[in-house]
Amino acid sequence: MNELSQTLSQPSVASVSWFDFAKRHRAILASIFVLVFPLVMPFTALAVNILIYGLYALGFNLLFGYLGLLSFGHAALFGTGSYLCGIAIVHFGLPWYLAIVVGIVGGAVMAAAIGALAIRTRGIYFAMVTMALSQCVFYLFYQAVDWTGGENGLRGINVRTIDVLGFKFDFINPLTRYYVVAVFVIMALFMLSRILASPFGAVIEAIRENEARARASGYDVTRTRLITFILSGAFCGLAGALMALHLSIVPIEILHIETSGMVVMMSLLGGMGTFFGPFVGAAVFLLLENLVSIWTVHWQLIVGAVFVVCVLFFPAGIWGTILKWVNK
Amino acid sequence: MSFDLIALQLFTGLALGAIYVLFAIGLSLIFGMLTVVNFAHGAFYMVGAYVGLFLLSLGGNFWLCLIAVPLIVGTVGLVVERFLIRPLYGRGIDYPLLLTFGLSYVMVELIRIAFGKSGYPFDTPEILQGAVNIGVGYFPLYRLFVIGIAAAVLLGLWLFLERTSFGLIIRAGARDPQIVRVLGVNVSRVWLFVFGIGSGIAALAGLLAAPLQGVIPEMGATILAEAFVVTVVGGMGSIGGAVIAGLLVGVVVSMTSLFAPEMAKVSIFALMAVVLLVRPQGFFGRAGLMS
Amino acid sequence: MAKKTTGSISRRRLLTTASAGAVLAASPFRINLLQAQEATIKVGFPVPLTGPYGTEAQDQVRAAEVAIAEFNEAGGLNGRKAELLVRDDKLNPGEAATRTLELIEKEKVNFIVGSLSASVQLAVNNVTKERKIIYNSISQSDEINEVKDFSKYTFHEALTPHLTAGAVGRYAFPKFGKKVAFLTADYAYGHEMVRGFQEAGKAFGVESLVDIRHPLGTTDFSALLPRIQALKPDILVISNFGRDQQIALKQATDFGMKKSMKIVAPILLYTGRIAAGAQAFEGVIGGTSYYWGIEDKVASAKAFNDRFRKMHGGKVPSDYGALGYAGVKTLLMGAKAAGTTDTDKVIEAVEALKYDYYKGPEYYRKCDHQAVQSVLIIESKSKPEKGDADVFNVLATEEPSEKNLRTCEALGHKS
User: Fold this and answer.
1) Which residue of A has its CA nearest to C47?
2) Per-residue pLDDT of chain B (291 residues; tens, 9 = 90+)
3) Between chains, do A308 and B84 touch, taking CB under 8 Å as contact?
4) DSSP 8-state symbol, C106
5) What letters, b where the CB count within 10 A reaches 16 and e where it falls short, cover C286-300?
6) pTM for the full model?
7) Measured between beta carbons, which residues in chain C are less than 8 angstroms from residue B218?
8) What is the dihedral of CA A287, A288, A292, A298, to 10 degrees?
9) Which of A9, A17, A224, B158 is deepest in the core (most CB within 10 A)?
10) Superfamily of domain C162-288
């Protein structure tokens, strides 16, 4: 319905159909972009970071952008995925693909636990409760030194080769590492796209737009929220697991409050509630930080200022503003 | 573990709590009136300590700083509200939060550029050095002074809010800005001043904390997270709640330090989680304010 | 490109040139550029330029520049010049790992030297050992020497907490008494220092009254101090680092604790003492790897200080800064001795070095590549006498000896 009315109100049919095409096949277009991406980046490890943080932001945006719940504790989900993946490899010697599954499940279970406690609160309270609970998660992992390495972080997540169907890939090679990570990120993109296009996705947006009406229409709002939170946790858990494999370590900083704040910044910078916004935000944020920190040690000044300007003048974020402009 | 030691620890907790109270009260005031969650509050706290440091280096004394620092930083607060936060009213609660989040980065970095990265010592004023016997043992004089100042500021604030017509407008504006506006009061001016007062008190807290821990650009970040706990436990927007929760958090930290020092930091977050589960709006929060 | 390593260049310029390099390397011209650069020896240098240890990190860069300049002036390695690639690790292991990957994968560095905190060095080490790149750590840790993290590509130029804590203990216990209380940062580094004290204390019959562990980043110790005071120890050992240490000393002074007990710390930082002021540190005894004031007695220290002053506007090097010098210097001298940058040959050459670059004789122990070196016992002055940099008295020097280190067996090594 929505798309139909949009098409009707647009005079320029050509550009709209192009845009519609892009929108319908957004996951495919994104995949093509992801393939050539590392070739234009300053260095490959940064490109991998952008993919992973982009996925993390995507998972966060499912909750923030589509459901309208601002969480300040998403580091707990990202970090749990990362730690559990790492622990599976270091302490249990699991193969890499099972470790990734452990990371995804870990993120989802942590989300279920935090969600069960926090999901009933609203607005700013939700942000505060998630923040407090994620602080508790931080100390949990911090104190479990035998498992996590505590302050020193978890080391030794050394995956040298990735073997798929008899093919062996050298995971030490930066480009191979990038494409392995990219495969998972692309799969996640498709999944997310499907979820949002499904009836469940429609319920999510209905709740954001008008909770009372959604409730009146017979939808179980609390349950939908919790399920979305768990889905968000699974995506963030996958991102965390990939991070552990990429860096071969899990630093305790991954559970810091800054890691939670960073994903909020990324989503907002890119444009919350848009499909690719968080990804764009992650890319711009990390590139900006990378470039500015080479140029000056005072990179936080620039990053902070850009952020303030974005909030004041581009509340829709970079991608959101582009979309608006294209839609005109 | 003797009774004296526990009593002394209680005092320590109160002094610690006094700083939390001063910090959280501004946070709570700003939230209660403006519904702005001020993530830059820690930065104002830090700037307060640095302004004090700067005034001292110019030859000012500590007593003068106690007056000048809140005024100077409060003025900065006025500017921030007027030009950065005011355009965001009516756009939902997330935007001011995110803006102040970015602003805190900028403020911290500006201080790093002006004063360097590694921080400075901040000597306790001569006449407040040393410890006095308070019946259960020796206690640093300066910490007693901090408790005293916090009490004085609270009393002043209470008198201001309860006994002046401007205070009346503030309280009314917090309850229903629409009605106050209809009555012909310039609400935006009230909000401007509330933000100024809040940041001024935060700066005062920073100045008072400086002789206890020295000053570094990152000093606001730690206390911010802890102060959120204070405001949430006390009830967002409730001044009385901030006072009681601030002292409570101070005492909880101090007591866990005595019995299980490793848990000192996590204890306040655990406290918050428990309070929220039992009473989601905090001690004195109004239910439904946040929905 | 060789100009990069001349004396007067600032870190900022270095970073700018590095970024220009980054832009170039991403462009189609990268092939030509790579060929042109093949001759230089690249030393990657990730240190926390931003964050609370920015001052120390900056000093590490300055000192490393001295090592590079000296190497190049002496003709390099058969004419091959060395180049320092500074990166900001932001005191974050994740960022450090990313930066290390960049240095290895894109810049193709020959060696990595750097880091300032234990967690960052372990992260860098994990990345380098997987890729068989020599890494010289210039930050304290016991763990990096243990068999779990160690690899033959790992060198450790900095002191270990075990060594410095032991040295301070061996100095302090006979002089000030046997009843000891500990105030310890609750993480591996803090625990390692306490273990060092307690093992050194066995020989003196030391009695541990209490070991109070505080969370990292504590800003208020007032809740912990009365308990220590009530136990009336002879010595209070404060085993923490950086700002934690500065605040703990400041508050212990406020509580009047210096009157009834001697306060010692396993490690006192020059930069930390400057930042926290004389009042808090007055009379505190601790250990350090280096203090510029030894130049009256040690010739190599004099030469190093003079060179540093000349290059950096009359400043003196700090302890952690000097490690940056030694860390880079040993690898370059190893390459020179080996006559090549081939990894295995350089490792052998560095293992064989007996060097005195800035503080007296040193060498790397075979089993864990730990630099066997002296520890200085210093006391903080109440007032600087000869300029602002005059902050410590050197009370004693513990000469280098393998028996003060943890044994190879204790670390899990075979030999």
Assistant:
1) A297
2) 578 888 888 888 898 899 999 999 998 888 888 888 898 999 999 999 999 999 999 988 899 999 999 999 999 999 999 999 999 887 877 788 889 988 999 999 999 999 987 778 888 888 888 778 888 777 889 999 999 999 999 999 999 988 998 888 887 776 777 777 788 788 888 889 999 999 999 999 999 999 988 888 888 987 888 888 888 888 877 888 889 999 999 999 888 887 887 777 788 888 887 887 788 778 877 654 443
3) yes
4) T
5) bbbbbbbbbbeebeb
6) 0.87
7) 51-52
8) -130
9) A224
10) Response regulator (3.40.50.2300)
Reported residue count of chain A is: 328
pLDDT tens readout for residues C132-183: 999 999 999 899 999 999 999 999 999 999 999 999 999 999 999 999 999 9
Q: Can you give the residue ranges of every domain in chain C?
A: 41-159+293-373, 162-288
Q: Is residue A9 part of a domain?
A: no
Q: What is the pLDDT of residues B12-48, one digit of tens each?
A: 889 889 999 999 999 888 888 888 889 899 999 999 9
Residues of C in contact with A138 (CB under 8 A): none
Confidence of residue A16 (pLDDT cuts 50, 70, 90): low
Residue C199 confidence (pLDDT) above 80: yes
As a whole number of angstroms, the distance between CA A25 and CA A56 comes to: 22
If you ran DSSP here, which 8-state letter would residue C372 be given? Answer: E
The Cα A277–Cα B4 span in angstroms is 59
Contact C64, C45 (CB under 8 A): yes
CB pairs under 8 A between B and C: 112
Question: Which ranges constitute the DSSP H helices of A121-173?
Answer: 123-143, 145-148
Distance from CA of B54 to the nearest CA of C (A): 15
- Do the chains contact at A143 and B262, CB–CB below 8 Å? yes
- Residue B286 pLDDT: 64
Among C18, C54, C105, beta carbon nearest to A297: C54
The shortest C-alpha distance from C26 to chain A (Å) reads 6
Q: Which amino acid is at A193?
A: S
Q: With an 8 Å Cβ cutoff, are A152 and C50 in contact?
A: no
Helices (H), chain B: 3-34, 41-57, 62-80, 94-115, 141-163, 165-175, 177-182, 187-213, 219-234, 239-259, 264-278
Tell which of C109, C126, C142 to mutate to test the A interface (max A CBs under 10 Å).
C126
Q: Do B262 and C215 touch (CB under 8 A)?
A: yes
Q: Cα-flanking dihedrals φ and ψ of residue B110, to 5°?
A: -60, -40
DSSP A171: T
Shortest distance, CA C98 to any CA of chain A (angstroms):
6
Query: Does a structural domain hold residue A183?
Result: yes
Percent of chain A residues topping a pLDDT of 70: 94
A77-113 pLDDT, tens digit per residue, is 999 999 999 999 999 999 999 999 999 999 999 999 9
CB contact under 8 A, C52 and B218: yes
CATH for C41-159+293-373, options being 3.40.50.200, 3.50.50.60, 3.40.50.2300, 2.70.70.10:
3.40.50.2300
Identify the CA nearest to A76 among candidates A60, A98, A62.
A60
Tokens, residue A37: 């991406």
CA distance A175 to chain C (A): 10
Domain count, chain A: 1
Q: Which residues form the domain of A223?
A: 25-256
Interface of C with B (CB under 8 A): 50-52, 54-55, 186, 212-215, 217-220, 222-224, 226-227, 230, 243, 246-247, 250-251, 254-256, 271, 274-277, 279-280
Q: B165: exposed, middle or buried (C-beta count within 10 Å: 0-12, 13-18, 19+)?
A: exposed
Q: Mind telling me how many Å the CA of B279 is from chain C's nearest CA?
A: 29
Q: What percent of chain B has a predicted confidence (pLDDT) above 70?
A: 97
Cβ–Cβ gap C246/B142 under 8 Å:
no
